[in-house]
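Board work, copied verbatim: Peptidase S41
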Amino acid sequence: MNNKNLISIFTLLFFFSCKIQAQGFDKNAKDSLMLYNKMLSEKQMHQDLKILLAINEKANSGLYQYHSKKQIDSIYNTTIKSIKKPMSTTDFYKIMLHLADYEGSAHNYTIPDLDLINFLNRQKSFFPYPLIYVNGQIIFDGQSSDIPPGSRIRSINGINDAQLMRSFYKYYTADGYNITQKKSASVNKSFGINYLLEYGLCNEFIIEYNSPKSESLEKKILPAVTLKQREANIKNRFSAPVTDLIDYKKQSPYSFRVLNPATGLLNLRWFGMAYGSDDPKFEPYVQFLDSVFTELDKNKVSNLIIDVRNNPGGSDPNFEQPVMYLTDKPFKENVKATITFDPHFLPFENYFWGVSTSQRMDSVSKKMGKEYLKDVYPVFKNNISLQNQKYNPVYYPKSPGFKGNVYLLINENVASAASHFASLVKAYVQNVTIVGVETVGGYYRHNGHSPLVYELPNSKIKTQFSIVNLVQDAPKKDNQPEGHGIMPDYEVWPSLDDFFQHKDTQMEFILKRIR
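↓ predict structure ↓
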């Protein structure tokens, strides 16, 4: 018998052992998968999906942004009809992921009951090492004696790399139709809890891979680890000298440095440094920006790189502030913002959970939330409530304005307020060159601002969406198609050669153009 057949038989035995571990828990155990991943009846799932559609129709202003009512009704009806037998909560959860993803909003989020998530996080079933997406491939990013860094992963537990990546697309929603974040997140973000939700619990992982610059297929069996061990290995990943520099959790929300007499670098890692203009942290941020542009003007710096890669978003009016130094035209956050229900009456309040999936909202906070919505969206007419224009001020150019060359660095993880910032830069800054990868957040519009979370009665799965539909202050651009994120002038993905040399491919591209 040849090695290929041996591997196939071993893989089948391994899958059988995974299935035993995932399904063979004592039903009476106090802490078992059977307890948390309960079976749902056909009737229960049908009811949850009908409630989910009703909630979305009433409260979700972005439901029909990219698909017609007929299309939305069709996908729900087809899904309901396809459920003809009992199903585990995790299998039903995957169905709900497809529905949330189909809608086309980066602010959609779906999560199973927290007891199930907490149970999975307690298991010694995690993939041990970090992986990274490079050139459409799964690349080993760990530093260990098991597999060399930079190796291409061909399969895990008998599932090939292309199929693995595709299976995780549904976990990552995007504005419109773009899939850039899905591609990288299917590797960079998927081999923690999402792998357990998608493929169940396993004691070990069979890895088939090619070592760097090798075509021969090798095999390694890695034991599963705890979440704590996995997180320690992630900190020690091979790519850390580059990837840590654009990690908003590890870097300051904003920083500036002079690269050379002709070039400055403004890093904007997160726009959540202040919750609004009355936050004590807002004024230091404004003063910081003023000092940066004063320095640029004083020293006659001709090139400014603005790096917002991996910026997940944040709050008004943080993201508008830098734009005022980059344009000579006034602008607004949006030209129209609406919700689709009367803010005096919260839709389907009996299923309402809160504004975060991690904590249920109490009655006092709920009352305050309603008062806020009534203030911001005061008049309900013709099935919409328009935004009070006092919350949509005009932003005017600030002095000293930057007149040199602007280079905006974006990537597939730029979302929400950060993609809105990039949209304003593309719309209102004349001398800008955008480099990187299409953002996950939209250029023309998005649903944002106020998230609502509902818990479905039978599955206890929570669905989150933002209720405000915003038409952004984004003029039509020939190179900016509808239903997409901010498109770069030069699409640049990280390269494998630069991975080995610890070089930042996208930054190097800009510096080379400047030189």
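The radius of gyration is 24 Å.
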